[in-house]
Amino acid sequence: MRDFSWQYFSLTGDVDAYLLYKEINNDTDSIEAEEDLTSESDDGLE
Fold first, then answer.
1. What is the mean predicted confidence (pLDDT) over 11-28?
2. Cβ-based burial of 21 (10 A; exposed 0-12, middle 13-18, buried ≥19)
3. How far is CA 12 from CA 2, 6, 21, 24, 26, in A?
């Protein structure tokens, strides 16, 4: 979905498509950061 919204934005210049891309990108970054924190805390328990 992220790639589609970026491609649509780059072809049309539609601001809503760009905002959707940014929202998806921020959500993805947040999920990855949570996974990194969880992984680090799991490593400390062993």
1. 94
2. buried
3. 15, 10, 14, 19, 22
Binned at pLDDT 50, 70 and 90, residue 10 comes out as: very high
Q: How many CB atoms lie within 10 A of CB 4?
A: 12
Other CB atoms within a 10 A radius of the CB of residue 2 amount to 14
Cα diameter, the chain: 51
Per-domain residue ranges of the chain: 1-32
- 24, pLDDT greater than 80: yes
Residue 6: how many other CB atoms lie within 10 Å:
17
